Amino acid sequence: MTLGTVVALAGQVGGAKLAEGLYRLRGRDLAVVVNTGDDYEQLGLAFSPDLDTMIYTLSGNAGEAAAWEPAGESFVLFDTLRSLGGPDRPRVGDKSLAMPILRADGLRNERSLTEITLAICRHLRVKARVLPMSDDAVRTHVVTEDGTLSFQDYFLQLGCEPVVRAFDYVGAQEARIPEPVIDALHAPDLEAVVLCPCNPYHSIRPILAVKGMPELLRKRGAPVIAVTPIVGSRALRGSAAKMMRELGHEVSARGVALEYRGLIDGFVIDGEDEALAESIRSVGIEVAAARTVMRTPGDRVELARAVLDFAGRLRAARARAAEEA
Amino acid sequence: MTLGTVVALAGQVGGAKLAEGLYRLRGRDLAVVVNTGDDYEQLGLAFSPDLDTMIYTLSGNAGEAAAWEPAGESFVLFDTLRSLGGPDRPRVGDKSLAMPILRADGLRNERSLTEITLAICRHLRVKARVLPMSDDAVRTHVVTEDGTLSFQDYFLQLGCEPVVRAFDYVGAQEARIPEPVIDALHAPDLEAVVLCPCNPYHSIRPILAVKGMPELLRKRGAPVIAVTPIVGSRALRGSAAKMMRELGHEVSARGVALEYRGLIDGFVIDGEDEALAESIRSVGIEVAAARTVMRTPGDRVELARAVLDFAGRLRAARARAAEEA
């Protein structure tokens, strides 16, 4: 199989795990476009939860149990802040405050989020390109039965309780795609575009909502492949199943595949869900089965390999079809 | 002796120590006007070293050996910042970063430095009024043989090495005195104004440089008393002696008294320096001797009591003089 550039779209821990598997296989030929729809400001610091999770994971600093923060976290500063009248939550650790401080300072000094992120990655010797989906603010709002909320309030303050009616990606249609994302997706050796296994509504959709993104993802003709975040009827992480149910969608891997219909060429389901393969194929999406639950570092690489092999098969089939035509 | 309002002017550790002694004696009837000429911004955080030292000390949180930071400090966040490309110095601890974060956030939200400081003190149950000398920016610049530097650069980057020619308190003549400082100095029961033992040039002078401050300090007619930061030819803290020498001033307690000539009614020298008393009295400044080196918490209270007793004697003498006239 030819080694080429791989572009992954990701958010959350699930996205970071598969990205890490891809990174082990492709190194600097991986570009990860990361959701920034959950970004928020608190105490003047610039929090980008999905960027941080990705960087901790790819740099080998993520905690074992809590991959959204560095291993061995302490909470001295946060607890001091609270004792002085600071906020009660989210309880952010001492190490975890470093990137939000540097990011806020960089942004105030008119550096772009992309530039700041790449500089941090350089310091941590992460060779993959970790790229925000946009340098312009896009904010995921959750339209619920109790009103419209920022994702941060929905998640942190209300524990994802209110019933979801819709999502709104505020600013997405005015947001520009950063140059390095455009460059990665124009790579002559683009091998695959991978939608990582994470919540479709607040991890992948915000990325796809950025103006021109779906067209750009398909521009080079490399296979676009999504990996299911749902196995059986369980969400691997987060509240995807709850949201699908409340939105009136089918709560299954097939339901996720349908979310990406028209964009993806292939969909990776869990071996456990092979019974769904035919009905997904019937809407024109190729299907591969793999072990999608990543418990060990080895699992991440294995799933990444399965995804890239699948992409290889799709490219080969397409080449054969072109020859025959 | 009547208990009344005491107003102290202070900076640095020496200033905080005497302020603590006064606080033990006067509680909420103490107002401390703190130097903000050393304030600086780094990574978008608002550092006020003298305010922080004062608050740690009065709240009982100051370290034993390093009173400018809370006891039991750790450096997790600072070290993480550095690993991500953040600054090398000053190495600020996890607890010590809390106030600069809250302060910067408050200032960005258009709260005054006074308001922010008082809110922090309330949370820490500090009953004395800790008051910045101004809510407007005043910055101490050090004019040296190697050029003019911010105090921060002179102190942190250059270790106070360059030879000092003069000091400049940039912004002082446009700075306004905050209302609570004016209120404290108008207290009908004002008992004494105390210039704490700290560097005259970058701790007390910046406060005196704020427009209208010297007049305000003397307005109620309460005795204005300074306490020497110099014993023998040693500076108790910092580099006062070095600076006095370079400025061509007499390096002694008497030299400090002369710095405040025209403003102070009385000067407290160390028992060790009693030989200087007469020559200080000869310029019209009353003198008392006390143990000015504060090694224990008890020393702080003892010195505070000596200062207030001295003020009481000056008030009584003045009352007698008025009766006789």
What Rg of chain A, in angstroms, do the CA atoms define? Answer: 19 Å
Largest interface summary: A-B, 28 and 28 residues
Multimeric state: homodimer
What integer is the average pLDDT of chain A?
94
Strand content of chain A: 15-25%
Distance between the termini of chain A: 24 Å
Helical stretch count of chain A?
A: 13
**Main sheet specs of chain A:** 7 strands, parallel
Structural class of chain A: alpha/beta
Query: Shape of chain A, please?
Result: globular
Widest sheet, order of strands of chain A: 5-2-1-9-10-13-14
**Helix-residue proportion of chain A:** 40-55%
Number of strands of chain A: 14
Q: Which spans of chain A have pLDDT < 50 for at least 5 consecutive residues? A: none
Pattern of helices and strands of chain A: EHEEEHHHHEEEHEHEHHEEEHHEHEH
In short:
With 325 residues, chain A is of the alpha/beta class. Chain A has helices at residues 12-26, 49-58, 76-83, 98-108, 113-123, 151-157, 179-185, 200-209, 213-218, 240-246, 253-259, 277-281, 297-324, and strands at 5-10, 30-34, 40-42, 45-47, 129-132, 139-144, 147-150, 164-170, 190-195, 224-227, 230-231, 234-235, 266-270, 286-290.
Helices and strands, with pairings:
2 copies of one chain form a homodimer.
Chain A: E1 5-10, H1 12-26, E2 30-34, E3 40-42, E4 45-47, H2 49-58, H3 76-83, H4 98-108, H5 113-123, E5 129-132, E6 139-144, E7 147-150, H6 151-157, E8 164-170, H7 179-185, E9 190-195, H8 200-209, H9 213-218, E10 224-227, E11 230-231, E12 234-235, H10 240-246, H11 253-259, E13 266-270, H12 277-281, E14 286-290, H13 297-324
Parallel strand pairs in A: 1-2, 1-9, 2-5, 9-10, 10-13, 13-14
Antiparallel strand pairs in A: 3-4, 6-7, 6-8, 11-12
Helix pairs in contact in A: 1-2, 1-13, 4-5
